[in-house]
Write a structure and sequence with these properties.
The chain is of the alpha+beta class. It has one domain. It has one helix and two strands. A two-stranded antiparallel sheet has the order 1-2. β1 and β2 form a beta hairpin. The longest helix has 24 residues, at 6-29. It is elongated, with a radius of gyration of 15 Å.
Length: 62
């Protein structure tokens, strides 16, 4: 039987959105027009704490 941790899932979704926003802002600051191949990862780093990682390739269109 699976149990959904609704508050935890919502928090992780919010953090993924924040991480993606930061990545896009950094790409814009570098002069990029888009970010491709976006990947998300999360991991427990210690009891009660987790990290969210997002990465992609910033590109400049001709």
């Amino acid at each position: 039987m699976g149990w959904e941790l609704t508050a935890y899932n919502e928090m992780m979704n919010d953090e993924r959105a924040l991480a993606a926003k930061s990545m896009v802002e950094e790409a814009k600051a570098l002069g990029a027009d888009a970010v491709l191949n976006i990947r998300y990862a999360s991991a427990a780093i210690m009891q009660g704490a987790a990290e969210v990682i997002v990465y992609g390739t910033a590109v400049k269109l001709k």
